[in-house]
Amino acid sequence: MPGAKGPKYMVPFRRKREFRTDYRLRYKLLKSGLPFFIVRRSNRYITVSLAVPEIGGDKTLFTVSSKVLYKKYGWYGLKNIPAAYLTGLIAGKKALEMGIKKAVINLGYAFTKRASIPFAAAMGARDAGLDIPMGEEALVDESRIRGVHIAEYAKRLKESDPDLYRVRFSKYLAIGFDPVEIPKRFDELRTLLVGDNNA
After folding, report:
1. Nearest alpha-carbon partner for 186 in 67, 83, 46, 94
2. Domain 20-195 belongs to what architecture?
3. pTM
4. Structural domain boundaries in the chain
C-alpha cells in the first residue's frame, strides 16, 4: 500500500481495505447485543435487512426491497427518501412479526454522515413499532419523508419546462403516477401499510 513501510506495519483487514467494513463501528454495534438494521441503496432500489452477528458471518433474517412498493402498491420512485421510509415501515412490521422488538442501525461505509436514506428507513421501522435508538440530529424532516421536495420540484419543472419535466419523470408518468401528487400518495400508502397485516 502507498506509504506503508517499517517492520511493524500491519496490513489492514481485506474488508477494511475494500471499504466494506468499519471495524471500530462494528465493535460498538456488537456490544449492543442487538440485531443489525441494515439499509443499502443500489442504482434501482433500496433494501432493508435485519441480521444477527455470528462467528462465521452475519446471518440475514430477512430482506425487504423497495421493489415491493411498485409491485404490490403501485408506488414509483424506489430509491428516494419516501421509498426508504416506506420500505423501513414494511421491514419494521416484519421484524415485529418475528418477535424482534429492538435493533441498531449499521451504516457501514455505505453512507456519509448526512445519511438521510438509512435514517428515513429507520424512522419507518420505528413508526411500525420497532425500537431503534436514534439521536435527534439523525431525524429526517417530515416534509422530506413525504416527498414534498420532489413534488415541488416536479411542479416547478412542469410549469417552466414541460419537455424536461416529461423526460425527468418519464417513468412516473408512464405508469400514471403524477410526481406532483407524491405527498398525497405517500400519506395514503403509509395509512394503508400501517393497517395492512400482510405488508
Report:
1. 83
2. 2-Layer Sandwich (3.30)
3. 0.84
4. 20-195
